[in-house]
């Protein structure tokens, strides 16, 4: 027996079947992941069976969109069964009612809403009943905004890292330049004043500090 997924927020809950509309799965979104926990369906999408689970990091999600499609085989089959049900109204009301209900359900199951996204280049699809179309579009908009925010934050972090790295390089260049000037000054002082001990510039005749004549 397929049970609904436990969700904390009703906005994250999605019906998967027109027949068993109370059976719901969840598609949740946080700052890092898109998490899917949805029942699968069989028999023209009317009967929930099995489950699909997936956790996709936002960094790998692209091309998010909601699409609508029509399965003509389900619609035509449902229409045919509904017509047969109407024809049976005179002979067996109960059988006619069952046939009409099945026909209407098949027609409704042929109108599908699909939530689509790509994860690292691999297409992912989640089939939903037609009455979940607006809900799916809201999820699409929410996920698109979340991806835009995530990308902007990642760009800011990358720019900050580059700025820090460039600042460290500039600081090191300044330190190297200062060290080089000090080394050059020390190497250029090849003699010292005999009176005060101050370093003498190369070729100097007198001490710049005390005025004594260089030896």
TrEMBL record:
InterPro entries: Zinc_ribbon_dom. Keywords: Membrane, Transmembrane, Transmembrane helix. The chain crosses the membrane at residues 75-107. The keyword Membrane applies. It comes from the Bacteria. Residues 192-212 form the Zinc-ribbon domain. It holds the Pfam family Zn_Ribbon_1. This is Zinc ribbon domain-containing protein. It comes from Pediococcus acidilactici.
